[in-house]
Structure formats: C-alpha cells, structure tokens
Amino acid sequence: MPSRLVLYGRPDCHLCDQARAGLRKLLADGLAFELEEVNIESDDSLHSRFLERIPVIELDGEIVSELWLDVDGLRARIDTLSA
Fold it and tell me: Is the pLDDT reported for residue 83 higher than 70?
C-alpha cells in the first residue's frame, strides 16, 4: 500500500505551488504515494497551526518537511517505507 502524503498549504502561496510541482514530479517519476492537498484556510485550527510554516508536508501522519520540499529526503523516506 502506498504511503499517504498530505500537503498543507493555501491558495496564492508560491512556496506551496513549488512544493506541489515537486510532489507531482515525484509521482510522475514513479515514486508511490497518495497525495492529498489540504487548504489550511478551510479550518481555523489548521490555519493558526500551519500559517507561518507552509508548505507543510506530512507523510503517514508525521511532518517531514516545512517551508520547502526536501525532494531527496522525501524520496529516501518513501523508499525506506516501501522496502
């Protein structure tokens, strides 16, 4: 079963757009994970929790990246989980 990856962000966030593009590239390159995007503006508690940290990337319930996408680190973690 592929890992579940959640991207917390909001509209008009260039860092979120960059992270989204990087995640989609990883998917296109064959890395196996299910991507869910969550708009933090849809929930007051998420907004207050993540506003200064977005994009926030959570892998199987654990935050693995904030403010930018660590492509190599994320690839290594997913490879380790799927081994």
Answer: no
Rounded Cα distance between 45 and 3, Å, is 25
The residues, ordered by sequence, that sit 6+ positions from 37 with a Cβ below 8 Å of its Cβ are: 6, 7, 9, 20
Q: What is the C-alpha radius of gyration for the chain, rounded to an integer number of angstroms? A: 12
Contact present, 69 and 22 (Cβ < 8 Å):
yes
The pLDDT tens digits for 49-76 are: 999 999 999 999 999 999 999 999 898 8
Q: Across-strand partners of 6?
A: 36, 58
Nearest to 38 by CA among 77, 8, 11: 8
Q: pLDDT-based confidence at 39, cuts 50/70/90?
A: very high
- Considering the four listed CATH numbers 3.40.30.10, 3.40.50.2000, 3.50.50.60, 1.10.340.30, the one that applies to the domain covering 3-82 is 3.40.30.10
